[in-house]
Amino acid sequence: MAFMNWSDEFSVNVREIDEQHRKLVELINKLHSAMAERKGKEVLGAIIKELMDYTAYHFSTEEKYFEMYNYPDKTAHIEEHNAFVRKVQEFQKGFEADKILLSVDIMNFLTDWLRKHILGSDKKYGPFFNEKGLV
Ligand SMILES: [Fe+2]
Which pTM was predicted? Predict the structure, then answer.
């Protein structure tokens, strides 16, 4: 069973963004499976990097549209992205330095953050983008 399940309630009604969110859920599940299978540091580190890289790419997509359509709530939204990136980078650094292990707590943090961010902040831009013709 997947650690995090996609649900239609996560849809922000913009196809490209929904696809990226699905991919993030998939990467979280990939990381969780590798952890459950007790994969080594190299395998876990590579998936963490993949997740970080894809997250950066995904945030840059959202932020591109914020700029393009001058989304009124962009500053607060971008700050949420930056705070998340800082936190995961900090974890990644500790993980690479053997100071922190990947744990269920960290998996829960990633899942909770993504769920709350999509349902809270991302959902807010859906109708705004739709009105601009982005679907
Ligand atoms: Fe976002």
Answer: 0.96
